[in-house]
Amino acid sequence: MPHRGGTEGNMEKDNKKFKISFHLIFVVISILAIIIIVSKFWGFGRGITQEEIDAIPVPDNPEITVYDTFYKIEDTAGFPEDDGVTTIVCFGNAPFADDREASDNPCKLLAAETGAVVYNCAIPGSYMSTSNEAFSADYPIDAFSFYHLAAAAAGNGDILHSAVNAMGELDSDTKAAVELLQSIDFNTVDFIYIMYDGSDHFAKRAIYNEGNMSDTRFFAGSMISGIQLIRQAYPWIQVVVMSPAFAYDLAEDGSFINSDSKEFGTGRLSSYFFYQYDACMDAQVTFIDNFYGGINEDNAADYLTDNVHLNAEGRKLIAAQMKKALDKLTDTE
Fold first, then answer.
1. Taking CA 182 as the corner, what is the angle to CA 176 and CA 185, rounded to the nearest 5 degrees?
2. What are the pLDDT digits (tens) for 94-107?
3. Are the C-beta atoms of residues 236 and 76 closer than 8 Å to each other?
4. How far apart are CA 332 and CA 282, in angstroms?
5. Shortest CA distance to 269 belongs to which of 251, 287, 288, 244?
6. What is the pLDDT of residues 241-266, one digit of tens each?
7. CA atoms of 309 and 313, how far apart (whole Å)
8. Roughly how many angstroms between the first and final C-alpha of the chain, as a whole number?
9. Which domains are assigned to the chain?
């Protein structure tokens, strides 16, 4: 009897322990749930910090977000009859303009790898944006911005002509690009590629004008305004915007520093990237990510000759990015 009574007492104690443990588990779960809910609401609408941006996985990590986006023109009713030749025009600055006649120029590589006819109208030292709201012969190089080149392509080359006259003798590369642009029959063009490097960022040219998103003095405004001109004149041409690749800013002592490590007046280079991406999404234009999905902070030394210009391997990578877009947009499946 004492033995049985002792067992019953132990069982009663065990039951009490079980009840207490269950109660504690319920309390812990409730607390965790409350913490999760509060943290969600605390973070809602909060801007991402630079530390959080820096924590984004690098492109070698399969979890990285690559911002490639493709918009293919499907409705071809009323478009010119396909002549069976893929014709491409390239606009931009250094990535396309450097060593334009070299076999490893990205435009030359694209032509060699695809058999396409590729016209390279990139102009060295040019910018996506303009310096002045209205063209002035006192600053004729504005005519070589993307917007004014697009206007010339769309049939209004008056400003480009005025600039050439105002400048007199052009350097050989610029002269070759302008003469080529003036010779192209855009009724035969299928694709336009646009790639500007970090030059607008280095020159502290602003990204966008919230009050006027078409303001050509701004990086995104000039791009969208130029694309609109092309679309109005040639709605069948598929436009491919190639983002800037990663580039280094220069410190006061001339050393290379991460272009996102310091605010240089008009935003970090990644700011230009994201505003360009957003503008392309709004306009439904194909966008190729060269900043995270191509030449990035971790591999830039392998693809650049200095803080911004491409070496031979960098040119091959950009050509591969161009071909990726072409393959995607010409896929008949």
1. 125
2. 999 999 999 999 99
3. yes
4. 25
5. 244
6. 999 999 998 888 888 888 887 676 78
7. 11
8. 85
9. 67-330 (3.40.50.1110)
